[in-house]
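haha ok so turns out i had the wrong file open the whole time. this is the CORRECT one, sorry everyone. sequence first:
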Amino acid sequence: MKSAAVIALAATLMLPVTSAVADMAHTMVGDLRLEQPWTRATPGGAPAGGGYLTITNTGSEDDRLVAASTDRVKVTEIHSMDVVDGVMKMRKLEDGLELPAGETVQLAPGGFHLMFMGLAEPIGVGETFAVELTFEKAGTVVLEMTAAPLGASEPHAGHGGHGN
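then structure:
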């Protein structure tokens, strides 16, 4: 049962993200615009989940997402996911995620994402929890992530996160 949950989680992390809902709430930290923080509900027994958002660096200097944490899980890491020769490869970004000046970086299913590891219990649809993000230059911000249904490829309209 546990291996089936891990396979289901891996499959849902690979789903592509579809178009974002316009006019959702955003948070600014320094020159970074953070939009649509969300997660997915997880099946019972799943050891991990993913976190997603869009980050636009409106400044003239590069920045970097260097850490993330939440009380909801034991460990939170910044990951990339790629399919190489038909095999999904996920890895921790040891130096964080680069946020080039003037560009938008999307953390989405099948690509860059936050990896929530060590779930004590499943994440339920509609559940929200705080996630702290730390940037090299912009500083630290806390966002609320809301869980979309299991396997969702985008957040629900009207469930945008708001910074604290």
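The chain has one helix and eleven strands.
again sry for the mixup
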